[in-house]
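Q: What would this complex look like in 3D?
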Amino acid sequence: MAIPDWLRRLRDRDVSAEDAALWTKCPSCGEMLYRKDLEANLSVCTKCNHHFRMSAYDRINTLVDGDFVEIGMEFLPGDPLGWVDKRSYPEKLEADRLKSNLTEAVVTGFATLDGFPVALGVMDFSFRGGTMGTVVGERITNLLEEARKRKLPCIVFTASGGARMEEGMLALMQMAKTTQAVERFMSDGNLFVTVLTDPTTGGVSASFAFQSDLIVGEARASIGFAGRRVIEQTLRQKLPDNFQTAEFLLEKGHIDMVVTRAELRATLVRLLDYAVDRKRVAPALKAVPEFAL
Amino acid sequence: MAIPDWLRRLRDRDVSAEDAALWTKCPSCGEMLYRKDLEANLSVCTKCNHHFRMSAYDRINTLVDGDFVEIGMEFLPGDPLGWVDKRSYPEKLEADRLKSNLTEAVVTGFATLDGFPVALGVMDFSFRGGTMGTVVGERITNLLEEARKRKLPCIVFTASGGARMEEGMLALMQMAKTTQAVERFMSDGNLFVTVLTDPTTGGVSASFAFQSDLIVGEARASIGFAGRRVIEQTLRQKLPDNFQTAEFLLEKGHIDMVVTRAELRATLVRLLDYAVDRKRVAPALKAVPEFAL
Amino acid sequence: MNVIVEREKGPLQELEARIAALRERETGDSSDLRDLEEKYRILLADLFGNLTPWERVNMARHPKRPFAGDYVDALDQFDELHGDRHLRDDRALVGGLAKLRGRRVVVLAQQKGRDTKENIRRNFGMVSPEGYRKAKRLMEFASRFGLPIVTFVDTSGADPGIASEEHAQSEAIASCLVALSKVGVPVVATIVGEGGSGGALAIALADRVIMAENAVYSVASPEGCAAILWGDAARAPEAAERLKLTSADLIGFGIVDRAIEEPLGGAHRDAPAFVARVLDAIDQELRVLEPRKSNELRDARYEKFRRIGAWENESRARLATALT
Amino acid sequence: MNVIVEREKGPLQELEARIAALRERETGDSSDLRDLEEKYRILLADLFGNLTPWERVNMARHPKRPFAGDYVDALDQFDELHGDRHLRDDRALVGGLAKLRGRRVVVLAQQKGRDTKENIRRNFGMVSPEGYRKAKRLMEFASRFGLPIVTFVDTSGADPGIASEEHAQSEAIASCLVALSKVGVPVVATIVGEGGSGGALAIALADRVIMAENAVYSVASPEGCAAILWGDAARAPEAAERLKLTSADLIGFGIVDRAIEEPLGGAHRDAPAFVARVLDAIDQELRVLEPRKSNELRDARYEKFRRIGAWENESRARLATALT
Ligand SMILES: [Zn+2]
Ligand SMILES: [Zn+2]
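A: Here is my prediction, written as structure tokens for the whole assembly.
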């Protein structure tokens, strides 16, 4: 079978253009940041502590001990509704693939964190605004099912604008699908942790994001059900600046803790250590063929 | 063994004096009510619908089909703290026995409601303000344990000023004891219904009253954790009239329904009918020796 | 402005008036009356025989449409249970114990109001966290006592207000979805009007999903979708077309199991009969589900939603080659 | 006015100052210093050697007393978890994951503030429904992952405000009691200061109840009891006497399992050592409980509270005769 066009283009594209932009301006404090410094600082502004959105693979690199074995890559978006507006849905998908270097809005797989084997899912806002379509739903569900088989703890980083319009009701149904998968996973006594990053809203927020044992909010992340603009338009009033921030949600009792990116990995390791028996889960990853512990 | 003094006096006392008061004034609308009419109307004012507090046995009579087999009568209050203030605790108990014709602030037993066998507990405010001491705790616990053995549904009518001071921490511990008994009873899949009557507060409110499958508030009953006066004194402000009424709690989502006394029996029968298999529970009372179905 | 309500004015209204007048005058059957009635049928078919998705959206929002409460009222018996036990009784979500064709069930219904006053009380059928928490509580009650769960969905979406955000709307909806994932009793959901987004799904994660023919069920309201994608809520009719939100579309996707045909011109043209037909359909579905064991129900429910997806399956090897 | 704080003024304070001054001046041991220290010990014993119940109430409320948070701070590790997932994070009840003597536990602590600002933030250690719901959530988490539950009780009682009533304080406390009835893990509660009424019991339905020697645990505050019974809160000292609220009384009743002796003059006179002794005691109790299976723990907990009562058992026959 031939390699599809979009995959060939993704492989062959010229990446040097992207690297040309050596400097980034902090949207919060205006400081010009040297991109390499920014990356070395986990994409957190060295001046004002603004947390830039992070790509899924960058995030994974900041977390895992070594190898990350990706699963679920075989699930790739179709065009179930034959959606066309300014561009067709397949065209939008291709543009996002090239932009993000991702095949969909979530990356799932296995890794170890300080020796703890975990199933790890990381959403990426740069692919279709992190919206949940059938592939995001399938990959998350698949991750939970695979984790359940192995009795591994599961950590999912959310970043999502909600359900994906272009897949219509098939997208909405992923809320039901993922919730059921989480419920089965948790009912077996496995630990489920979600880390809500900027932004986490809509169908992702109202399904697996808020269904976990422990909910960690990344500092300053915007988190809510309805989008801020929707609420402002409905009520015709401006909302306070801190509305729907992780810090606001902590006060309102919705999330367990707010953690800066610098503290995140150590915090997750401590949380795993409280609820997971390291010795019990250690052999689990041996069942993943590609994984070298 | 000799009959204790208080029991002899309770048996021998002259009840004609009590019957002398043929008329009662409604505290709500001021209407003079002929006591027999009032009783015939379930102790509800015929003019303004004010619900008078009801004695436990009167309440039982308005509910059960025929027989009521009382259990737990063997548990009678002692004086664990050797409490004395103006009067000793035993003196207070005796006064209340004579006043209320009860041996403690709750009556428990078995009966049928429209053919549904049930375990029934009814508290009575006229005995030590319906406070929960060790005997109330023991009788309620005993009722739930006996109901659990027989897989009977259980209905408890609450009316309580809270924990009984004169039994100190032994009284407080009855919250733990009754809650555990309810938890075991409910975990077996049995139906537990509470009917909150005027007043239901403190230790009773914060244990079995609000722990049930279905919570019915009797119309206009005062229900809350802290007493109205305590709150007013703490905050130095007057509370709105409807604060802590059953109707207020319905709006605040704390109770399932508010029912007038006239509708109460029919409502309870309907609720039993939804959750209880009449055929399954029918033979249960045959195990109670004194009970003639 | 509701396009269906507008279309009902003019010739149709005129004809209705004429028929009514004639019926009042004449006792028996007359050829005049028969002629008018025939004309009326033709006009109805002409006006409503072939509705676009946007027209169906308007039909689903028709102010005279039977609301969830009309289905509840048509049950044999109903005892409402109130409150989330914590904070509030949300009148946008009505719940309670009921008998449906003689059988004991737990009912959950999203209720709009017919007038402004009622709409304020019912928050226009938009459920708040307290409503979802009441629903969750009653779902657990149903499972505890083996009562089937029957839901009626009719909401433009979950309440998007400040208080709802502050009271954790996301958690509330998620907790309903979890509760429905767990219950060991039959669950039948019926979309009777608008099935708007996660706010609708929260009570529709069901063993069987029924839809009134002209009801709609959508990932977002057409207005919301148009605003999000094109920054222009006025393009809602176009969004309605694209979103595939009709009963026929959703049966095609395997998301809805069954549609209940409406009278020509909409359910409100013969509401009592239509309501009865819906209840009969629910009864039929429950008859099929009731003999099943708790685990069978749960497993089948899992599989029902598990298989909903649409993707191109690329072989892992090919992907690996292509991406490296 | 705290009677213990008052008693610490005057001669005791003077003597303390003199000893401190002498210690500063002299490096080695001097007979003067030894004399003063001996005098100090005698005075301490004189002032605090035989405390009345009311004095113990004041000791339990001493502003310098180690608070629940001081015990939490002395744990090997602590990660606070916040919120009831619905409405608010109640700072009067601190909860989280911790390590106690190397072992993973869930900790729940009622926290007063040392100054006005902190007291407002902590609501004077009076827990609201949201705090109890957070506690319940963490109890369930503990049971789910097999972590023992360690609680530190220090509250004059559950919050009696309007909002707490509106948010169903009764239901919140009851739900904690239910959760503790269900958990299949060891539960050790320590009354470190005031154990006030149902608000304290909500996190003290435990397998083992430990009490600091001068802590009090009471069905109602002495002031509340005096107000209810005699309409005069000023008679609190008398109520304290009657209520049997000291650790010795409660061990006598079988309600408390173990008291931890305090330094003469109260725990605050050597807080770090006292806190460590309490943690050691909890550690010892957990060692005994940990090998037990979930069902054994639950059954033993049931029996522990089941047997608490005090009544005269009348034979049914005699009663029946007498009453008819
Ligand atoms: Zn910056
Ligand atoms: Zn009256």
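A: To summarize the key features: Residues 3-50 of chain C form one domain. Chain C has two domains: 3-50, 57-313.
Q: Very helpful, thank you.
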